[in-house]
Amino acid sequence: MKKFCDKLIQLRREKGYSQEQLAEYLEVSRQSVSKWEADKTMPEISKLIAISQLFHVSLDYLLIDSCENRGDKKWEPASETEEIRRTINEVKDYIGYQKGFEYKSRVTVAGIPLIHIKFGRYTGRIRMKDAAKGIIAVGNIAIGVVSAGFFSIGIFSIGMLSLGLLVSLGIVSIGLLAMGVAAIGIVAGGVTSLGIYATGVAAVGKNIATGVSAVGRTAVARQGEKLWGYNMTAVDDGVTREWVKSYLISYNPKVPKWILDFLTLMYK
């Protein structure tokens, strides 16, 4: 059984092409061809079609490791549209479920791709080499200025497990401003939240905590729920947002307005 990378090397050498010559024909960089042959990435759909045409082999031969029949058929213009449609579907299925998907923009900022999207098959391991890394990064693992993924790290980050230097949103979220089911941050909001300023169902805040249950130097919680603090008050459903703000300000006069607004979102 041969992988795509091995078949590509064999086909290229049989034709006597160098990596540079193949790259020129496919209108890609030599580094791209090198990564294909090293089994680090897969060509995009249009390039797979071009490779199939160039070497007169079927896509089954290129993409299915166990396939040894090259197909050896010429492409006929009359059937090209239907063939391309079938090819796209085949490649989508293969890329989506076998090798994953990767897109990296040619535009870079300080050598970093502007956009990098990378999804791979789940292997049960978190490896940084599998991460999407770009100014905008999207993938199973994403690292970027703006990032989104199952495991995400960025200045602005969204993910199941999210780490954001400024803003973080996720199931488990850590950041300067963190929001999630479990949130940890300078300012944190979630079902369970921990921070300097925290709000949520269960909130623990060093300076201020607001929520159904709240623990903090200044704490506001629902009547009958867990409440602890140096300055604390229990409120009922009829309390207004403005009243809670005024209470918090009375003990924390220097707290920024946007933090007060965030901490009192649950009140009317």
Automatic annotation (TrEMBL):
Name the Pfam families on file.
Answer: HTH_3
Transmembrane regions: 135-159, 165-188
- Does the entry feature the keyword Transmembrane helix, yes or no? yes
- Residues annotated as domain HTH cro/C1-type: 8-62
Mind listing the UniProt keywords for this protein, alphabetically? DNA-binding, Membrane, Transmembrane, Transmembrane helix
Query: Which SMART domains does the entry link to?
Result: HTH_XRE
* Gene Ontology molecular function: any one: DNA binding
Q: List, alphabetically, the PANTHER family matched.
A: HTH-TYPE TRANSCRIPTIONAL REGULATOR IMMR (PTHR46558:SF13), TRACRIPTIONAL REGULATORY PROTEIN-RELATED-RELATED (PTHR46558)
How is this protein named in the record? Answer: Transcriptional repressor DicA
What organism is this sequence from?
Eisenbergiella tayi
